[in-house]
């Protein structure tokens, strides 16, 4: 009896798949007509002067059926972004998860989803088994879509921007597709959902874009432009449209093409198409990519990169509110990975020196940094965390942060959470009542806020070693590490956000300025950075996993052994060298330690502000 049931089920499945194939064939014959009609709707939406967000849902409701036939990721994002925003929570809870884009990283697959996850969501990664020769065939000769799949828990989830969330999944095993899908634990799943999915390799993809005036700033992997200098933009083109999972070649009718006006490292600035430029508040979800010519001069071949980058309105309410507010005099931007324990000390200390606003670009941390940021916010520190899932893109991330900070800040410092500004002269001399050194950081930069020539202030760095310690100092790095190398290494910069070169070109921690502006070197007796670079081995060895800078070699790679970006004498494996705790110690320097204990410590208990916890 079970054999008869099984045979009947197979016949039903064949009939279902045969019907699915016939529908697919029917749609493919009429695809050009659908494309033309949908493109007409796309242009109509952008050009209509009467178009307003309040009237958006009724307009799109009428055209949802037509547009959804395109299977266009970008068009769906436009529809769903507004649908999700206006639907109630019950509707969102019952809706299936749809993966908008996938990127294949060396150690995980990143999934981009065009809505917000619920707080209590328990998500699972769905892996489809690859087809093999034993699969059944449909009537038209195509292989039967694979029915087998595997389930694994997600590694982590996060909010990416106002409209999108991300999930990280383990890499697929052999014989499973890289087009990983997502489902809620215990929920239903459409087994055909991931068959036609694509995972773009991380080394060749457009990953971020933002509108800046009459241009779009686009962030790209795969152009292989020369580091630390400008590149020729004339060989590049910019493409805007609805797209189809990055497959621009098949949807040329939907693409608006413009010129690239600048290019440097991973950042390309593109002219906006006139339609978008005239209606910037109506461009939510338009996808952007970069094209270039390859092949010979006589027979060039134009290539467009796959893209997961979409642009959103530059005339948002938040931006308008920021423009009305008085700008902060001094802000700080950093990119980090798993440095949550160091964040409180870094923020609280620099707040005393006059930093008013912090932008934290989180490069895939999994050490509870969200809780630390929440605690700082509860204590009235103006800290925002931006998920930045793009590995080894510190320079691009700083370019993005510079654009974001420009509307809120006069000056922005780009430095790491193990780097602390120290003002020897100000810390030793009282100026009236109060604690010496208060707001000394802000006071220095404010002297040049209206300078006709100064756009950047550079400060030397002193690199500190483990200072004889074997475990992390309980009161923080400013108190625990007191022995350093004698000569300074490198420098860090504070820049006028409105005076940066249009390319946004930067080399780890300093930017190229607009023509006519220059940098100012601050003497060591006025300001210096204590860089707690070589900490106890337990902390330092984390650097072997990955470094965030694009053009700095990871330590496990056998390259640039003599570079200042590496620890002298350290090999390519995370093995503690002999006498690590005694290394990098040439000068005992307790200046900052003495200042912190003298003015920050609780007189009754001796504890420092960053040792306390509200959560």
Q: Can you give a write-up of this model?
A:
- The protein is of the alpha+beta class and 615 residues long.
- 25% of the residues lie in helices and 25% in strands.
- The longest helix is centred in the first third of the chain and has 28 residues, at 2-29.
- The termini are far apart.
Major β-sheet annotation: 9 strands, antiparallel
Please compute the radius of gyration using only Cα atoms.
Answer: 27 Å
The fraction of residues assigned to DSSP E strands is 15-25%
Please state the average pLDDT score: 80
The amount of helix comes to 25-40%
Number of strands: 30
Query: Helical element count?
Result: 15
Query: Which structural category fits the helices and strands?
Result: alpha+beta
Segments where pLDDT lies below 50 for 5+ residues?
A: 1-5, 48-94, 133-146
In whole angstroms, how far apart are the ends? 62 Å
Oligomeric description of these chains: single chain
Question: How would you describe the shape?
Answer: globular
Describe the protein's topology.
Layout: H1 2-29, H2 31-47, H3 56-68, H4 73-86, H5 89-94, E1 101-104, E2 109-113, E3 123-128, E4 149-153, E5 156-159, E6 165-169, E7 181-184, E8 200-201, E9 205-212, E10 215-221, E11 230-231, E12 236-241, E13 255-264, E14 267-271, H6 274-278, E15 286-295, E16 300-304, E17 310-311, H7 317-324, E18 328-336, H8 340-352, E19 357-362, H9 369-378, E20 383-387, H10 394-406, E21 409-414, E22 419-422, H11 424-428, H12 440-446, E23 454-463, H13 477-480, E24 483-484, E25 491-496, E26 506-507, E27 510-511, E28 518-521, E29 528-531, H14 537-540, E30 587-588, H15 591-599
Parallel strand pairs: 1-8, 18-19, 18-21, 19-20, 23-28, 23-29
Antiparallel strand pairs: 1-2, 2-6, 3-4, 3-7, 5-6, 9-10, 10-14, 11-13, 12-13, 12-15, 13-14, 15-16, 15-17, 21-25, 22-29, 23-25, 24-30, 26-27
């Amino acid at each position: 009896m079970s054999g008869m049931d099984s045979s009947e089920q197979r016949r039903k499945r064949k009939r279902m798949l045969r019907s699915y194939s016939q529908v697919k064939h029917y749609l493919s014959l009429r695809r050009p007509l659908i494309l033309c009609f949908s493109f007409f709707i796309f242009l109509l939406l952008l050009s209509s002067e009467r178009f307003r967000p309040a009237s958006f849902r009724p307009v799109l409701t009428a055209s949802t059926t037509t547009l959804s036939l395109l299977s266009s990721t970008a068009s769906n994002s436009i529809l769903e972004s507004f649908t999700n925003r206006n639907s109630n929570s019950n509707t969102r809870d019952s809706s299936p998860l749809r993966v908008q884009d996938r990127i294949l990283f060396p150690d995980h697959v990143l999934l981009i989803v065009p809505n917000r996850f619920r707080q209590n969501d328990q998500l699972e990664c769905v892996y489809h088994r690859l087809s093999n020769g034993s699969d059944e065939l449909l009537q038209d000769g195509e292989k039967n879509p694979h029915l087998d799949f595997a389930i694994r828990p997600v590694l982590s989830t996060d909010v990416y921007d106002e409209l999108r969330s991300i999930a990280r999944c383990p890499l697929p095993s052999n014989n499973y597709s890289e087009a990983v899908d997502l489902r809620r634990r215990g929920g239903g799943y459409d087994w055909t959902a991931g068959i036609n999915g694509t995972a773009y390799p991380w080394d060749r993809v457009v990953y971020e874009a933002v509108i800046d005036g009459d241009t779009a700033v686009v962030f790209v992997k795969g152009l292989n432009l020369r580091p630390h200098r400008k590149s020729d933009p004339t060989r590049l083109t910019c493409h805007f449209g609805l797209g189809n999972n990055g497959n621009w070649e098949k949807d040329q009718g939907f693409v608006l093409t413009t010129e690239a006006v600048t290019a440097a490292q991973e950042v390309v600035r593109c002219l906006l198409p006139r339609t978008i430029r005239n209606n910037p508040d109506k461009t939510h979800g338009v996808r952007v990519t970069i094209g270039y010519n390859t092949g010979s001069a006589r027979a060039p071949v134009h290539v467009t990169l796959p893209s997961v980058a979409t642009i959103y309105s530059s005339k948002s309410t938040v931006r308008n509110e920021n423009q009305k507010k008085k700008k902060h005099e001094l802000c700080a931007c950093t990119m980090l990975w798993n440095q949550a324990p160091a964040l409180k000390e870094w923020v609280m200390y620099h707040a005393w020196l006059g930093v008013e606003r912090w932008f934290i670009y989180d490069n895939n941390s999994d050490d509870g940094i969200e809780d630390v940021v929440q605690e700082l916010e509860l204590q009235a520190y103006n800290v925002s965390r931006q998920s930045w899932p793009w590995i080894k893109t510190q320079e691009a991330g700083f370019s993005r942060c510079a654009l974001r900070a420009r509307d809120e800040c006069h000056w922005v410092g780009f430095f790491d959470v193990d780097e602390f500004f120290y003002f020897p002269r100000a810390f030793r001399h009282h100026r009236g009542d109060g604690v010496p050194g208060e707001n000394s950081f802000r006071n220095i930069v404010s002297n040049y806020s209206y300078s006709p020539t100064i756009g950047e202030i550079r400060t030397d760095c002193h690199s500190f070693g483990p200072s004889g310690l074997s475990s992390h100092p309980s009161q923080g790095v400013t108190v625990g590490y007191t022995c350093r190398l004698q000569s300074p290494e490198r420098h860090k910069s504070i820049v006028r956000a409105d005076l940066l070169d249009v390319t946004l070109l930067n080399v780890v921690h300093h930017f190229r300025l607009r023509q006519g502006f220059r940098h100012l070197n601050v003497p060591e007796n006025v300001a210096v950075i204590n860089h707690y670079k070589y900490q106890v081995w337990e902390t330092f060895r984390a650097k072997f996993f990955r470094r965030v800078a694009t053009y700095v070699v990871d330590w496990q790679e056998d390259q640039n052994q003599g570079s200042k970006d590496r620890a002298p004498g350290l090999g390519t494996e995370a093995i503690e060298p002999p006498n690590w705790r005694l290394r990098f110690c040439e000068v005992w320097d307790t200046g900052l330690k003495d200042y912190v204990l003298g003015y920050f410590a609780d007189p009754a208990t001796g504890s420092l502000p960053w040792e306390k916890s509200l959560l």
